Amino acid sequence: MSLRTILAGAALAAGLTSGAVADGHEPLTVGFVYVGPVGDGGWTYEHDQGRLAVEEAFGEKVETVFVENVPEGPDSERVMTQMALQGADLIFTTSFGYMDPTINVAAKFPDVKFEHATGYKQADNVSVYSARFYEGRAVQGHIAGNITESNIVGYIASFPIPEVIRGINAAYLHAAAVNPDVEFKIVWVYTWFDPAKEAEAANVLIEQGADVVLQHTDSTAPQAAAQAAGGVYTFGQASDMTEFGPVPRVSSIIDNWAPYYIARTQAVMDGTWESVSTWDGIDTGMVEIGEITDAVPADVKAEALAMVEAMRTGAYHPFTGPINKQDGSVWLAEGEVASDYGDDGLAGMNFYVEGVSGEIPE
Amino acid sequence: MDLSAINPILFFASLMVAATPIILAGIGELVVERAGVLNLGVEGMMILGAVCGFIVAVNTGSAWLGFLGAALGGALLALLFGVLTQCLLSNQVATGLALTLFGLGLSALMGQGYIGIKGPVFADWHIPILGDIPVLGPIMFQQDPMVYIALLIVLGTGLFLNRTRAGLILRAVGENHDAAHQLGYKVIRVRLMALAFGGACAGLGGAYLSLVRVPQWTEGMTAGAGWIALAIVVFAGWKPWRLLLGAYLFGGVTVLQLNLQAAGVAIPVEYLSMSPYLATIVVLVIMSAGRAPGSLGRIFHASH
Predict the structure, then answer these.
(1) ipTM of the shown complex
(2) What domain count does chain B have?
(3) Kind and range of the H or E element at B147?
């Protein structure tokens, strides 16, 4: 929690009192709980861009508050409670680890609407929303498989949750499709944000021969490490990270939350808000693919763009059979497309596909 | 599993880099605590050092000046803590925690315009002759200068505390500030100087992250390194050499576990991830920690 957060809280308190006195027309208060700092240049940065877009769209009709660097777990429950007590009408909790705390706090504040990112537990006043990042991972895998010369792709993984595992599987399948010799080295760092550790992980992977490094953590440290090492390619994660292009960053997955945040805020204003489960991808623009730089051969770039277009129109699904699980058993038969939910659905994915080595931590 | 993928030379070289920020922050806090002050604001001083160092380095184009700025920034923040706790007699634990929050917020504010910018390169030193020794050369003698400066600071601190009169006075102040006061030593002045040194070292540790190890400015980039340094000071029993050991052990096992993961060793990742903390605590506890300075964390007022 930073000084700005405290100031924001104070400003909120002051704003609420003055607003109530002024004309009785209180602005809608929208709260955001962030797992990292808004300046991480990745995940939290993009959520904050969504917050700013809400302010932009509604002007004086909304007031937004946020608390950054909130640890996942009990501490987040305290922050959410505080936010609800301070009069927030709609609260976005933007990390997987806020799932149970969000449900707990929502039960105590039935009149406050909650929106939890990347989770799967809903309630009458809790919606869940996420983006199909794995569509972007498929594009990354395709490019990575083509441009790697050492045939070793490093992968900085955060926590062993379905979202991260989907990303690994999607990237591996599409890398292996164009390069059967490709090998993925996966390192779990157990953090979303720790620049020093992320840089360390990137360096270790590069030392062990990786010439493409994919990251599922939030800071730009792995990009800087790859840049310092030279001859290594990376992809922007959650945010465009163009400052590291044209190399090492050759493309990126951009999370664009703004349209969703604006729509949900509007729904609360109109009184039409309902608990929903949203899982959008490239088709609605929630997932965007950042510019593919000239470091990628033109034909590979064209194929990647064609894949993006096919996913946008729905003609192609990144998890289309035949795909086996890591143990060799059949997951998807020829032509079969993975379902979102249910047994072996994407939402709860907890297994590697065939070809990925290593075990998923429990 | 493919252990041959791990290059031992690169491993030991990165071990020294990984340990350096903790060594710097830890040795500063060690001196502060030996003077009888408990400053829990290490994380705040580190992050302020990280941003000050980065800002100065970017604007002057010199990483050296950056480190100087970082030391100054850290020392100033520490002196703020000193004035509050030593002159205004505020509670050290609460003030230290507040210092961390303040440092995190202030650094985020100062660093607004510096996100995504590249700092100047801080080149490695290839020490002649020594750097050419096979195996040992690349590990020990081809590092960046701050690695050696950190070691020199530890060496100097060890000698200062145990071999000089000034060091004896500092320890006396930390062991029993009332007795030291009655002997005519300036307790508050000694403590303020120790705090400034501690802040400067923490600032250097933070700048090492933003200028060498990561290297870039990102909000909250210390991500708990200051707390690790605080813990290692305690587990090292307030002794400089054990601090060095603890920091290398922690940095080493951190790098090692990432290496083992990447090499696909069949040890569950959960155990690998906890191993740096576990190994450091176990080793330092087995070596039987020392006794805390007698006046640690107690408020001193000349009237008592």
Answers:
(1) 0.82
(2) 1
(3) helix B145-163
